[in-house]
Amino acid sequence: MNALRPLRVLLAVVLGLVAGGLGYGGWLVLRPPVDTVGRVGFEHPLRVPPLAESTVDGGGVRRFALDARPGVSDFGHGRTATWGYNGAYLGPTLRLKQGEKVRVDVHNGLPEATTVHWHGMHLPAAADGGPAHPIRTGGTGTAAWTVNQPAATLWYHPHPDGRAEEQVYKGLAGMVIVDGSGPAADLPSRYGVDDLPVIVQDKGFEDDGNFRVPNPLGGTLGILGDTLLVNGTEGPFLDVTSSLVRLRLLNASTARSYLFAFSDGRSFDLVGTDGGLLAAPYRTDRIEVSTGERAEIVVAMKPGERVVLRSLPPDPDGGTVVRQFQGGGDRFDVLQLRAAAALSQSRPVPPHLADVARLDPAGAIPRTFELANRAINGQKMAMDRVDVVATRDVTERWTIHNDDFMQHNFHLHGTRFQVAALNGRAPPPPLSGWKDTVNLRPGDRIELLVRFTDYADPTTAYMYHCHLFKHEDNGMMGQVVVIDPGQQVSLGHHHHHP
Ligand code: C2O
Ligand code: CU
Ligand code: CU
Q1: What spacing in Å lies between the alpha carbon of 480 and ligand 1's midpoint?
Q2: Which of 16, 58, 223, 426 is deepest in the core (most CB within 10 A)?
Q3: Among candidates 260, 265, 236, which has minimal Cα distance to 310?
């Protein structure tokens, strides 16, 4: 042990206590912004999560099984104790088709209760895997629904009451791909070949190889690591064999936001966001993805070249001093793309990708949500309190205001929404499609058009919350119950069990 350590601990305690109220993060006070650009070896082939196996039962239901369990992983730091689904770290990718009936049995092999939430999935509240439906140790929970939404990149992760941050940090997360038809069928779609999950997570490692456990004094945003894993691979490279490659970027970090760009500044096509494909590809050279969000990009490669996917500082102007300590100045090398000497020719990105029907704001029911002090409208999550009662098939206009000194984002379960305005202006192209999670910098005001369709259930709530997992765990979350006209809300009074 280093002789300066007691002094550093004392300094960290003092600074942590002083700065905690201001939003600094304990240990982070003692170190400059993280910068791994040029320092990542790219020695490991990018791991591609396997596609989940399934069987179709006599009723035509495609059945999946997930087993959440502890394991041991080797990321290059020795033995790391991790959790995963059907393996030691992360989980298989579920590939689903529009219109099919699916059922997932989740066995809990962990030493504590968990749930599996289907982030971005349009399904009944009873199948949503929220905190009101824990699966106890040794137990099995079942979710069943019909896939009823357009092609999109979704994901699954735990959502237990107060324990989501730690469970996700240990490795519980996986991707869901909903396949569609139409013009977008021309996009690269060979899984693991020219269509890849890119699940980005930041970690800290202890000397013994284990993940660094969050410092209780630090990190108002939650855990901010200094090492990236992509699909559970540290220092990954990808061999590209086609002229276009589609990357499904998923931020499955517990707190950090990324501003993805390429090392040579090349442009790429943003083709999809959380809830599905954009109407048309958007040509850009950077895309911000906050915790829980997804972005599908298509990038062109030339034979034999190498280029690195990076994350630039999310606050390019430096942001405030407080933001510097919240990761605003950090940058990372993420993934190296290595093009083969000869590339197969991909079909061009179609100029029209999807029909994105706009929700009509006329007569929308207004609601406001103030994000501040790790609460929403001054209240912490309470499982026996319903914050919003929404009527099925009625459009609402939700104004979300970040009235805080730190970043928050906003995620809604059960449906997708459209961004009507960001700080009084029309949304930029990356916010023009269907979304389920949006980032809010300090002071941002964002207007969403929200409409719950298909499923009403007066006994079970959907959640909305800040998707920084620590904030979610600390109660920055509320409940919305969707009813049909005339129904009475009666939480927890289930008339049937699926
Ligand atoms: Cu991905 Cu309620 O969360
Ligand atoms: Cu969700
Ligand atoms: Cu937050």
Answers
A1: 14
A2: 223
A3: 260
Q: What is the pLDDT of residues 273-315, one digit of tens each?
A: 999 999 999 999 999 999 999 999 999 999 999 999 999 998 7
What CATH number has the domain bearing residue 446?
2.60.40.420
C-alpha span between 73 and 69 (Å, rounded): 12
Report the separation in Å between the CA atom of 125 and the middle of ligand 3, taken as the mean of its atom positions.
Answer: 23
**Is the distance from the beta carbon of residue 471 to the nearest atom of ligand 1 less than 6 Å?**
no
Q: What pLDDT does 216 receive?
A: 53
- Reduce the DSSP state of residue 337 to 3 states and report it: strand
Closest protein CA for atom 1 of ligand 1 = 119
The CB density around residue 491, as the number of other CB atoms within 10 Å, is 16
Domain check: are 161 and 206 in the same one?
A: no
How far does the centroid of ligand 3 lie from the alpha carbon of residue 445, in Å?
14
**In a shared domain, residues 51 and 31:** no
402 three-state secondary structure:
strand
Is 32 within 8 Å of 328 (Cβ atoms)?
no
The verdict on residue 359 lying in a domain is: no
Please count the structural domains in the chain.
3
pLDDT tens for 61-118 read 999 999 999 999 999 999 999 999 999 999 999 999 999 999 999 999 999 999 999 9
109 in the same domain as 31: no
Q: Is any ligand 1 atom within 6 A of the Cβ of residue 411? A: yes
Please indicate, yes or no, whether residues 439 and 301 belong to a single structural domain of this protein: no
Tokens of 83: 């959790």
- Answer whether residue 260 shows pLDDT above 50: yes
Residue nearest to atom 3 of ligand 1 (CA): 119
Q: Are residues 26 and 107 in the same domain?
A: no
